[in-house]
Amino acid sequence: MAAPAVSRDIGVLHAGWGYASIGDKIADIVLTRPVRWPWRAAFLATSMATLVFVAAMSYLFVTGIGIWGVNIPVAWGFAIANCVWWIGIGHAGTFISAVLLLLRQRWRTSINRFAEAMTLFAAGMAGLFPILHLGRPWFLYWIAPYPNRMNLWPQFRSPLVWDFFAIGTYIVVSFLFWYLGLIPDLATLRDRAASKWKRIAFGLGALGWTGEARHWARHRSAYLLIAGLATPLVVSVHSVVSLDFAIGNTPGYHSTIFPPYFVAGALFSGFAMVLTLAIPLRRAFGLHDFITDVHLDHAAKVLLATGALVAYGYLAETFMAFYSGDEFEIAMTVDRWSGAYAPVYWSMLFCNVLAPQVLWWRRARRSALLLFFLSLVINLGMWMERVTIVVQSLHHDFLPAAWGLFVPTAWDWIFLVGSICAFAWLFLVFIRLLPSISISEMRSLARESTQEAA
Amino acid sequence: MTAPSTPPLYGVLAEFASADHLLAAARRVRAAGYSRAEAYAPFDVEGLAEALGFERSSVPLFTFCGALLGGLSGYFMQWYAAVIDYPVDIGGRPLHSWPMFMPVTFELAVLGGAIAAVIAMLLASGLPRLRHPIADAPDFELATRNRFFLCLRSDEPGFDRAAAEQLLDELRPLRRAEVPR
In chain B, how many domains are there? Predict the structure, then answer.
């Protein structure tokens, strides 16, 4: 009889992995691996910070958004910038899962699961900030269309209402897509778990999955269809977010380049976050055979490409300001270069345009350490981009009498850092509770690698 | 049934070590006339369902209907709100401003399609299911690990246990077992 299938080295998967060893390697991170001190330390620190975040929210709800630096004219401060930043980060997960699946990119296989988890957590953080930013967050449900005694409807011509539908749909569809892929892996964990409670927990999650061929065929069909639906969805979500700005007539907001420019920026920051998470993940759990240098290389190339699109966006914005001849747009652009927030603008250009150019070198694309730090720099840069768009545009609009500075308070920083820590906390919990790489898809990849050899 | 004393049978089960072996076995039992045979694999083996006679998945149709329903009801909701129930005259602009209704229509179409796809996939497969007789079969916990199984079900029209067992033995499995109901 033929020997059990063992993978051959195909770049995105190293040689020597069989169906059982792939499953064991990934499942044992969840099932049997003891909790070591680095995870404990990170968990403890992020738990404390998450508690601080929750406490800060309580204080915000009791006191009101006056604790932040926002005021007229800069009524949108860090909260909205953070929301846009987080939802952008949340784009890479679905892009990797859906778009790269339809394009038959094999390197998505080992990174799609945790990238989707990243998407869910980032979208959760993004969904939180507009609520926190409401003056009266307890009336949050007013944005949803529901039969009410006030006889009111939401204004469906408003991008803020579109935003509610876009982000809501995005969270639900991302969750369904992630969970659908997870079902067979939960069944693997159910069958491998030693303790009864784990078997029950994973068994309930697996919904009774047995791996019957017809079920697999329907699973594939549903997975591909949701990928097809999620592909335009990814593009639509950040386009809709950008319309929140572009439909307003503030100089710096009112620009037709915004939807594509925001989507490119979203993928740029999202892939940076994927690298920020993938590099420590593969080091901590010794996943170098699954998340290889080829993955880093490809992700770095995506960074380079989306970074170029973002740079084009900056260029087009500046060009259009002068080409339009609109004195307010021109004044706003000059203020970006030389005004109060100029250091933020120039740092943003350094982080997003200059720093990624190092990725033209293959050695840089394959250096995990360099990519890790570069991904942090890029995400810092993307955050500064959001702040520039939101804050700088508002502080310098039409009448000089209406201009005014926004200075973040300690609370602004607590909410930013708190959301980052809450995101990290969720991710830490995720990698110990659920398989962070898709087991069944890795097995298919191993089979593919053997068939190519034959 | 052969004898009244034997426990009721779900089917007879053969275990294989490789996906290709299972694929060949599935083609063989299909050719022998078994239309309800089931194959179990730890990952999506291309062509396996088709080899067992699975023709088309109902998931795409359901997804289309879900997306259509989501999109149409989304559009209707906005039209009803803006034109009938809560018209707001903004400088005499048309109440039925359809381009502005597109984003929500699109998002709800995607939402409806995705939810329908998941529900269709689960319901058509008989999931969620708390207990399946095959889960108690020997070695079956390996069906989500590295083994491949083929089950000839006893509710097959004209099922003959001895013939089924003989057919499975001819396929040279690692082992053959019975699956009580």
Answer: 2
Which domain-ending residue is among B124, B143, B161? B124
Give φ, ψ of A24 to 5 degrees.
Answer: -65, -45
- For residues B104 and B73, state if they share a domain: yes
Task: Show the tokens assigned to B109.
Answer: 């179409």
Query: Could you tell me if B148 and B65 lie in one domain?
Result: no
Find chain B residues with C-beta within 8 A of A447's C-beta: 19, 43, 45
Query: Looking at the structure, do residues B42 and B76 belong to the same domain, yes or no?
Result: no
Q: Minimal Cα–Cα distance from B139 to chain A, Å? A: 10
Question: Are B16 and B180 spatial neighbours (Cβ–Cβ below 8 Å)?
Answer: no
Using a CB-CB cut-off of 8 Å, the residues of chain B touching A154 are 81
Respond yes or no on whether the N-terminal peptide bond of residue A73 is cis (omega within 30° of 0): yes
Q: In A388-409, where does DSSP find H-type helix?
A: 393-395
pLDDT digits (tens, 9 = 90+) for A37-54: 999 999 999 999 999 999
Give the pLDDT of residue B1: 46
Average pLDDT, consecutive stretches of 10 residues, N- to C-terminus, chain B (181 residues): 65 92 92 91 92 89 97 96 92 93 96 96 92 88 91 88 90 89 82
Residue A233 forms contact with B (CB below 8 Å):
yes
Whether B106 and A173 lie within 8 Å, measured CB to CB: no
B29 domain-assigned: yes
Question: pLDDT higher for A45 or A108?
Answer: A45
CB contact, 8 Å: B128 with chain A?
A: yes
**pLDDT number for residue A3:** 54
A293-324 and A258-285 helices, crossing angle to 10°: 160
Residue B3 lies in a domain: no
| Alpha-helical regions (H) of A64-158 | 78-89, 91-94, 100-102, 112-133
Q: Is B4 domain-assigned?
A: no
The tens digit of pLDDT for each residue in A190-238 reads 999 989 999 999 999 999 999 999 999 999 999 999 999 999 999 999 9
Do B33 and B66 reside in the same domain of the chain? no
Q: Residue A124: pLDDT above 60?
A: yes
**A19-453, what's its fold?**
Formate dehydrogenase/DMSO reductase fold (1.20.1630)
- The range of the structural domain enclosing residue B93 comes to 59-124
Cβ count near B5 (within 10 Å): 6
Q: Both B143 and B170 in a single domain? A: yes
User: What residues are paired with B176 via a beta bridge?
Assistant: B14
A19/B contact by beta carbon, under 8 A: yes
Size of interface A-B (CB pairs under 8 A): 206
Q: Is B69 on the interface with A (CB under 8 A)?
A: no
Q: How far apart are CA A138 and CA A130, in angstroms?
A: 12
Same domain, B68 and B24: no
Selected residue of A101, A156, A182, A186 to mutate for chain B interface (largest B Cβ count, 10 A): A156
Secondary element (H or E) of residue A272? helix A258-285
Q: Do B176 and B135 share a structural domain?
A: yes
Q: Is residue B98 part of a domain?
A: yes
